[in-house]
TrEMBL record:
Major facilitator superfamily (MFS) profile domain location: 74-495
Record lineage: Eukaryota, Fungi, Dikarya, Ascomycota, Pezizomycotina
GO molecular function: transmembrane transporter activity
Keyword field: Glycoprotein, Membrane, Transmembrane, Transmembrane helix, Transport
Name of the protein in its database record: Major facilitator superfamily transporter
InterPro entries: MFS (IPR011701), MFS_dom (IPR020846), MFS_trans_sf (IPR036259), NAD(P)-bd_dom_sf (IPR036291), NmrA-like (IPR008030)
């Protein structure tokens, strides 16, 4: 049976018109209440998000499985890689205070600062190109290769005896390490939703914190157990062990890293998961649209993101927060109160604070849906810590506390990166470049500051250079910019974009969608909203309704219109280039069954037929008005086949099929101008009909299996459509084609036994199909409703969706490709919690 067995038009709202979007299931009974329908409403997910949840409320089990795979394979490698990166970045300071400086005669000069500087120069040069390379070279190859290469240079450090040797190797370590942070952040932003990103970014950066901490613990352990082994000092063994730890991580990345949603070949994803991964990002307006050509330069440097986020990250690096652990180690050594293992272990408390703050701020940022407040609060905390260190002449314990509590600084990294990921949206080159550029510039600007005002030779007081006071000024700048300035710039730019879109509306085309709050109309509106050259105008009798308000917030121009009022339709249609006409037989049928006095001398089915045909003709008449047709290019009608004609008179009373044919005939005879612009989409069988007619859903059996029982022959191929997803694609195809084309709106054809086999396999249950009689299926259902649906099924089974009309073609027969949802994709994405017990 075709789609119009359920209402799709909320202009004539009624209980039967429960749509998929409303998540209602309706059971048809013989109750004498206002009709024959009993609403078994599914509880709506609470709008308030739960704190400390790893998944967003309402995430389906199949999508949770997809996210689990991303976390298990991609995020795990990302965390391990960043762990190794921070281990290798910080090993030099641990080695410095654990015998390297004394053994090689370092200390009076600024050797440690120069080692940091050469590393930063390498980071700058490598970072400028690494994230552009990652958009053309598979991340699965590029990232592990960089990890392996820099680890070889780390290994070479154990042979160094002169400062210049350290400088050269640290430079090349920086070149290849520059790929790690922006590269992984780019990939995370390619897979995770905005609401998921801060938590994962925080976990990723926290792994680096653990790397910092582990470097201290490892050096302390090596000093105790390996000092002098093989004739080498413990600090030399540190570089060897760091290299050994990196090898299995690189191998793991080569095997498991999934690249990006549009290029992935990961063995652990099935086809549905690959497609769903792409859909998840596209649903947030982040579909990859950026092209790798010379226009990328204009897109990047003409954007606000590259300057705003580079400023934010530069302010952060200028606080010298990432060097404070080094200064703390030097401070502990200069006091003469601590052993070498203690000098390595105590600064790891900074990492512990960093870990806790990152966990909490990541969750809070996700839940608040923004980062400005979190940045402002943490910035104030940093101001307090830096103020204590600037004063310096304070009790030893307070100074220790200021060093340790400085660990809060690290949360800015995932916050700023996640913010930039979201702000750059779907332009993958811009997003990749901004992430790497802000790191490169941040690394560049800190070099002279770290060399002059925070030089290691002046550590830890920096009394001559006033280093702590200068850093405090940058902390204030960071707090004001990320807490106030950056969000203001973002809002200003967003308003400007909206204004630009509004300014270009006059040059855009407009589609008017009738039944915009229903399954078909909603799909059409979503499809055209994604097209920058189209405006979507939705007609509803109740513009103040919740569905209408939601659509308005998404960009639909909601206007009041009544299918029984031609003048309201004319007003709604003016300046339209396309009209999508969608009428509703079953809303009228339910009204007639609930209020028999409406029908007068007619049957309820005749009444519903006449009401639907009347509204369809009124739509065509309004479209034919001179003020409308002067701009109208296409009139697309949702329809069904002419049962009386194509059955040769065998089925003369399938009213909800024949009503559409009557509307088409009247349009052709009375409104030739509209007919000349008309195309039709013959909608297939709603795969979601089980939500509206409860007995069509899989039912639990005593043996624990599930059974679908219908009067459809087991060898009949049902022309299913996932209406709320795929209707818009068929309408868009008709708009692009010349007029008077007729397309079959079908997502996939298969038998019911094939469908239930997929359903059982996906849900991990035993399931089967059973053909039953028409009487069994409609037992207890009101007579008129059972007759209409039953006759529709019989005609449908015998003559098919089109009835044999050769003018109605599949999309490929028309030479167009329409994106559709397979049945397995639909089943995997659907929430079956009300069915599976």
């Amino acid at each position: 049976m075709a789609s119009h067995t359920v209402s799709d038009n909320t202009i004539s709202a009624a209980p039967l018109a429960a749509t998929v979007d409303a998540k209602n299931r309706t059971s048809i009974t013989s109750s004498p209440a206002a009709a024959s329908l009993k609403n078994d409403a599914i509880a709506t997910v609470a709008s308030n998000r739960r704190w400390f949840s790893w998944h967003e409320p309402g995430t389906s089990p199949e999508e949770k499985k997809l996210i689990f795979k991303l976390d298990w394979f991609m995020l795990s490698f990302a965390c391990l890689m960043f762990f190794i990166k921070q281990l290798d970045q910080n090993n030099i300071s641990n080695a410095y205070v654990s015998g390297m400086a004394d053994e090689l005669g370092f200390g009076p000069g600024n050797e440690l600062s120069w080692m940091n500087t050469y590393f930063s120069v390498g980071t700058i040069l490598g970072g400028l190109v690494s994230n552009l390379i990652i958009t053309v070279v598979r991340p699965r190859i590029w990232l592990p290769s960089c990890l392996l290469t820099w680890s070889v240079f780390v290994l070479a450090l154990f042979k160094c005896n002169h400062a210049y040797q350290f400088y050269v190797l640290r430079f090349f370590i920086g070149v290849f390490e520059s790929a790690a942070w922006p590269g992984v952040m780019y990939c995370l932003g390619s897979w995770y939703r905005k609401s998921e990103l801060a938590r994962r970014s925080g976990l990723f950066v926290m792994s680096g914190v653990l790397g910092q901490m582990f470097s201290g613990y490892l050096q302390a352990a090596l000093f105790t157990g390996m000092h002098g082994k093989g004739g080498m000092s413990a600090w030399r063994w540190l570089f060897i062990f760091d290299f050994i730890l990196a090898i299995p991580v690189a191998a793991y990345g080569f095997v498991t890293f999934p690249d990006t949603p549009h290029t992935t070949r990961a063995f652990y994803f099935d086809e549905w998961e690959r497609e769903r991964s792409r859909q998840r990002i596209e649903e947030e307006g982040r579909k990859p649209v950026g092209k790798m050509d010379w226009s990328v330069i204009r897109r990047i440097f003409g954007s606000w993101q590259v300057y705003s986020f580079t400023a934010a990250y530069s302010f952060w690096t200028l606080t010298c927060g990432s060097y404070v652990m080094q200064y703390f180690s030097i401070y502990l050594k200069k006091t003469g109160l601590y052993t070498v293992p203690e000098i390595n272990n105590i600064p790891t408390c900074i990492g512990a604070v960093n870990f806790v703050v990152m966990v909490s701020t990541g969750y809070i940022a996700d839940k608040l849906g923004g980062r400005a407040l979190v940045c402002g609060v943490v910035g104030c905390w940093m101001i307090l810590n830096y103020s204590i260190l600037t004063a310096w002449d304070v009790p030893h314990k307070l100074r220790m506390a200021a060093f340790i509590m400085h660990g809060c600084y690290g949360c800015f990294t995932p916050l700023i990166a996640g913010w930039a990921n979201e702000a750059c949206g779907g332009d993958q080159q811009k997003r990749a470049f901004v992430l790497s550029f802000m790191v490169s510039v941040g690394s560049a600007v800190v070099i002279p500051f770290q060399q002059i005002q925070m030089a290691s030779g002046e550590a830890p007081e920096f009394s001559k250079t006033h280093g702590w006071g200068s850093a405090l000024a940058w902390v204030v700048a960071l707090t004001l910019w990320t807490g106030i300035g950056l969000p203001l710039v973002q809002r200003w730019r967003q308003k400007e974009v909206v204004h630009q879109k509004q300014s270009t509306k006059a040059m855009s085309q407009t589609i008017v969608v009738i039944g915009v709050t229903g399954a078909q109309g909603g799909s059409v509106s979503r499809t055209f909203l994604q097209l920058p050259s189209w405006n979507v105008r939705g007609i509803t009798r109740n513009p103040g309704g919740e569905s209408a308000k939601r659509l308005k917030s998404e960009g639909v121009d909601i206007v009041q219109g009544d299918l029984d009022d031609k003048e309201s339709l004319i007003r709604a249609f003016r300046s339209a280039h396309v009209i999508f006409s969608n009428t509703d037989f079953f809303a009228h049928l339910q009204q007639a069954m609930a209020q028999p006095d409406r029908t007068k001398s007619r049957t309820t089915l005749e009444y519903a037929y006449e009401r639907e045909v009347g509204q369809g003709i009124r739509i065509a008449e309004a479209a034919a008005d001179p003020s409308v047709i002067k701009t109208l290019e296409r009139f697309v009608m949702s329809t069904l086949s002419h049962a009386t004609k194509w059955s040769g008179g065998k089925y003369k009373s399938v009213y909800h099929f024949d009503s559409k044919a009557a509307m088409i005939k009247a349009t052709e005879e009375r409104f030739p101008g509209v007919a000349a612009r008309m195309s039709t989409v013959t909608i297939g069988h709603y795969v979601t009909v089980w939500k509206l007619f409860d007995r069509l859903a899989p039912k639990l059996q005593p043996d624990g299996s599930y059974l679908v029982s219908r009067n459809t022959p087991p060898d009949f191929k049902m022309p299913f459509i996932v209406t709320e997803r795929d209707t818009g694609g068929f309408v868009k195809a008709l708009v692009d084609l010349p007029p008077n084309k007729h397309i079959m709106g079908v997502s996939e054809e298969m038998t019911l036994p094939e469908w239930i086999e997929i359903w059982g396999r996906v849900n991990g249950v035993r399931a089967a199909y059973k053909e039953i009689s028409r009487d069994e299926l409609f037992e207890g259902v009101p007579e008129d409703f059972a007759k209409e649906i039953g006759d529709g099924f019989d005609y449908f089974h015998e003559f098919g969706l089109t009835g044999g009309d050769l003018a109605i073609l599949h999309a490929d027969q028309l030479g167009v490709k329409v994106p559709v949802t397979s049945m397995e994709e639909y089943i995997r994405s659907e929430d079956w919690s009300t069915v599976i017990q």
